[in-house]
Amino acid sequence: MNVNTGKTAHKRGQRKNTLDLPQRLLDRLTPAVLETSQSTQQGAVKAPQETLTLSKLFNRYYAARQAAGAAERTLEDYRKHMNWFRRFWHRSTAVWITLYLTVMSFVYGFHQC
Questions:
Q1: For 74-98, what is each residue's pLDDT tens digit?
Q2: How far apart are the first and last CA of the chain?
Q3: Alpha-carbon span 112 to 109, nearest angstrom
Q4: Which residue ranges does the record annotate as region Disordered (predicted)?
Q5: Does residue 78 contact residue 65 with C-beta atoms inside 8 Å?
Q6: Is residue 40 part of a domain?
Q7: Is 111 within 8 Å of 105 (Cβ atoms)?
Q8: 0.90 cut: is pTM over it?
Q9: Is the pLDDT of residue 53 over 60?
């Protein structure tokens, strides 16, 4: 720790911990989970925007929780609940599309061939 500034010295290229997170947690996170702030990206070349799907977001969250040391039972519950949600979403989406097409056929006189 520097006596004058009260800050700890960082090795070159080491990520500075500006959050109130333990450094041991940050050391265990994968680069895919970590995101940089907009201010640090201003000088960088902008890459094409990645489309974030529900699966990608879940995998990112799951990896972060796993790196944080979540219990195996907790991780298992995350997987189980996500699978339940996916099944519900697919079923309900099909029902809503069918309902929408049925209503539109009556409203606009659309008839299936």
A1: 999 999 999 998 888 888 888 888 8
A2: 76
A3: 10
A4: 1-21
A5: yes
A6: no
A7: yes
A8: no
A9: yes
User: Please, which residues have CB within 8 angstroms of residue 26's CB and are 6 or more apart in sequence?
Assistant: 15, 17, 34
Q: Which two tokens stand for residue 56?
A: 């990608």
Domain that holds residue 64: 23-30+51-108
Kindly state whether residue 84 falls inside one of the protein's structural domains.
yes
Count up the domains in the chain and report the number.
1
Residue with tokens 């000088």: 43
Tell me, yes or no, whether 81 lies in a domain.
yes
Residue 80 corresponds to which tokens in the numbers above? Answer: 């189980």
Residue 48: φ, ψ to 5°: -60, 140
Say if CB 43 and CB 52 are below 8 A apart: no
Burial letters 52-68, b for 16+ CB under 10 A, else e: eeeeeeeeeebebebee
